[in-house]
Specification:
257 residues; alpha/beta; Cobalt-precorrin-4 Transmethylase, domain 1; Methyltransferase, Cobalt-precorrin-4 Transmethylase, Domain 2; 2 domains; 5-stranded parallel sheet; 5-stranded mixed sheet; 11 helices; 34% helix; 19% strand; elongated
Amino acid sequence: MLTFVGLGLYDERSITVEGRDALRGADRVFAEFYTSKLLGATVADLEAHHGVEIEVRDRAGVEQRPDPILDAAETEDVVFLTAGDTMISTTHADLRLRAIERGVDARVIHGVTAESAASGLTGLQNYRFGKAVTLPFPYAHGADGVPKSVTESVEANRERGLHTLVYLDIKAERDEYMTADAAASTLATDWNDALGVVVARAGSPDPVVAADRLSALAERDFGDPLHLLVIPGDLHHIEADALRELAGAPPELLEPI
């Protein structure tokens, strides 16, 4: 059996009860933290809290050399951990399909995601979000400014009145995390006076939600990672009220439909 378990957003306690039970009952536990990681807990914290030993795999060890995981799952109860939800914005569907091809039972125990947290913390309604994008570090895409794929997706969403969730680049192996002020500064080159909403440390005891012009957000410090950014589309009047009350949005930027 191979069970994919999402750890949630922040620390060793963010996992669901179902996920916790599967984790503590496993014969072997694997994990990856290159797609995202828990900023409120180390691997040692997870091991101590749940009484397990975790074998951390790098990208190649999951995507190119997954046999140790799959071999173990053929004869033992194996749990594979990721931060957030184990099947959201990752490539792990491939690992699940490889397990099924071997005749291994595979199941998924979901965790809270940055996407759901962004909606819940900002008051922006989840069904009014369009295509999400990831803003990479400039060195990662080899050019300055905003990649064309990002600008095209944001503009397509704006034309339809939809919100855009902007994931910010993570290089976990280098302990490097794009900050919301840096992202806002980059995005302001295309949408200087556009409304932006920052969400910092979702799932932690002290999340930050802040809304303002992108150019203004670029001048602020939002503290420790992880951060993400939303570029709102047309606002329902309840969404406008929420951004004013929950995120301190300037009233002149809020024009409900």
